[in-house]
């Protein structure tokens, strides 16, 4: 069996790390608003926080995937990509 070797784009790897830091900082700032709000407002802030964290997690991983190059063509299916984004937002909301 032949192994396919890939390489990483260092700039995109660093950018992925920066995206993760920015998302984490944003959600930490939102936790104050979640803790201080009540009722409908609390749920709204919670949904914003879940969206911010879920999209941050998803974006970091997606940029990381884009940073990895293989000597074969790679394509992404839009519906699968959007479903994976939704899954990360729902998981963030649950947690």
Question: Portion of residues in helices?
Answer: over 70%
User: What's the number of structural domains?
Assistant: 1
Mean pLDDT over the full residue set: 90
Listing every helix as H and every strand as E from the N terminus to the C terminus, the arrangement reads EHHEH
Q: How large is the count of helical segments?
A: 3
Unreliable stretches, pLDDT < 50, 5 or more residues?
A: none
Entry keywords:
mainly alpha; 95 residues; single chain; two-stranded antiparallel ribbon
Describe the structure.
The chain has 95 residues and is mostly helical. The protein has one domain (8-94). The chain has helices at residues 10-36, 39-67, 78-94; strands at 7-8, 68-69. Strands 1-2 form a two-stranded antiparallel sheet. The longest helix is centred in the middle third of the chain and has 29 residues, at 39-67. It is elongated and about 60 Å long.
Chart the SSEs and their pairings.
Elements (H helix, E strand, L loop, with lengths): L6 E2 L1 H27 L2 H29 E2 L8 H17 L1
Antiparallel strand pairs: 1-2
In brief:
The chain has 95 residues and is mainly alpha-helical. It is 77% helix and 4% strand.
